[in-house]
Amino acid sequence: MKLFQTILTGILLATICGVADATARHKFVGWRSLCAAHSYPVGNRTLPQPSLIKNTQFAATSASRQDLTAVNYRNISRLALTLETSEFLAQQPAAIPSDSGGEILQQLTECVAGKIPNSQQPTLEAIQAVSMECVLRVVILGLDGKVRPDANSRMIALLKVTGTTLPKSSSQGQASVKLTQVADSQVFAVPVTFGGQQRNFLLDTGASNSIVDSQITQQLGLAGTPIPSDILAYFVVGNDCSKVNATLHSLPPLAVEAAKVEGLNGMGLPQTSIPGNASGVLGLDFLKGFDVVVNPQSMQLQLLPPSNPVAGAIPLVGKLGVMTAQAKINGQGPFTFLLDTGADAIVLSQRVANSLSLDVANAKTVEVRGFCGNEIAKKIKLGRVSLQKHEVTELDGVVLENKVLDLLGVDGIVGQNFLTRYQQHWRFGKVNELGFPEEGSLVLKHTKN
After folding, report:
1. What's the pTM value of the predicted model, to 2 decimals?
2. Which of 97, 74, 86, 125 is nearest to 22 (CA)?
3. Residues 222-252, buried b or exposed e (16+ Cβ, 10 A)?
């Protein structure tokens, strides 16, 4: 399953570097070490380009178990405020503008200062970990532990107060390629040229950022920033992230035939953590630059020049880098569902299952394998699932007891066992300051059986 796909990772590094620049009076000099790998303009300074992390969730439904991978962690990690704490903590915070961005910046610096004792000279890794945690808690999450409804606007306010401009990716060309189906799954793989070689990536609208096998990033010599396991654990399925080595990277160009995107940031993961034995995941950071047409009957993917969202289609709303739509379950709702070509099945949160009075207690228990190990889910049968006029009956689904869905503020995931009934034409609107589309549209046309 892929969730979150979501929050900001790359912008975090970018923003953090901007924070460091804007708060130089606090001696945030350590940021140079963290930001050394890449550069982009911030005011009149050159700062490093962040690596956006992806949120990815993959739910594979088979007769006996579900594969569910969730890394919707999207862009959180790199907002790592890298400070030289011994000097920073010794001083009183200077006045920061009282606007919302200034208040957020003040809270962020206080959070970092409060977590590193004056007496310690922490390692860069320790500073990164504390900074990521503070960004998560101060900027992204509310007091209830869920993603704040205004998380996007808070990130944007922080960018503005620090004078940071994020790098933008560029898309060109178009493509028409054959899809292959991942074994024991309804998820598709697409041939992607990366690092001079063609490799199979999962086609994943539920991933805000693309993912690459970490062995490939090592072979290409890509500099990376580690993601602390306790931070990753916020956004993934599985009960043990301590053995998952995830890193953030600025990626070389990715291409599907002549459709190419440059300037992407992504996450490196061990191949054993990527569903379907694929070499990577092609996320919405790549796909948003094109009209995406998926024909499950002919197993064909088209990437076309972008066009504006259309009236009369299913309206899509961007949420931290992924696209959501209003869905009804068994005639009730609407509920906010993530639309995810990287998830095999419909996924419901425990909260929504309770509101629908589903008999989850007596449902079959299945094992769900995520990026960080196994968790328990319940297999259910849904009478009706509908997106506007498009309705599918008697669909298998799973109820996820993990709190990831609630944390992200979505009610569930519409996966491939719904989407592959239709030819799909995805369109994406203009991106916001964070690089995410805020709206889009989806046209569905029944395929012939």
Report:
1. 0.80
2. 97
3. bebbebbbebbbbbbbbeebeebbbbbbbbb
User: 259 φ, ψ to 5°?
Assistant: -85, 115
Residue 345: count of CB within 10 angstroms of its CB: 29
Residue 274, pLDDT score: 82
The identity of residue 145, as a single letter, is: G
Yes or no: say if 40 and 238 are a contact pair by the CB < 8 Å rule: no
Q: How far is residue 163 from each of residues 22, 41, 150, 158, 347, measured CA to CA in Å?
A: 8, 10, 20, 8, 40
Cα–Cα distances (Å) from 135 to 84, 108, 163, 209, 367, in that order, read 17, 7, 17, 19, 32
> Phi and psi dihedrals of 42, rounded to 5?
-135, 105
Write the CA distances from 180 to 83, 196, 278, 295, 363, integer angstroms: 47, 21, 11, 12, 32
Q: What would the pLDDT profile of 388-406 be if each residue is shown by its tens digit?
A: 999 999 999 999 876 677 7
Which tens digit of pLDDT belongs to each residue from 362-389? Answer: 999 887 766 666 777 899 999 999 999 9
> SS3 string of the chain?
CCCCCCEECHHHHHHHHHHHHHCHHHCCCCHHHHCCCCCEEECCEEECCCCCCCCCEEEEECCCCEEEEECCCEECCCCCCCCCHHHHCCCCCCCCCCCHHHHHHHHHHHHHHHHCCCCCCCCHHHHHHHHHHHHHHHHHECCCCCECCCHHHHHHHHHHHHCECCCCCEEECCEEEECEECCCCCCEEEEEEECCEEEEEEECCCCCCCEEEHHHHHHCCCCEEECCHHHHHHHCCCCCCCCCCCEEEECCCEEECCEEEECCEEEEECHHHCHHHCCEEECHHHHCCCEEEEECCCCEEEEECCCCCCCCCEEEEEECCEEEEEEEECCEEEEEEEECCCCCCEEEEHHHHHHCCCCCCCCEEEEEEECCEEEEEEEEEEEEEEECCEEEEEEEEEEECCCHHHHHCCCEEECHHHHCCEEEEEEECCECCCCCECEEEEEEEECCC
- Both tokens assigned to 116: 């590193």
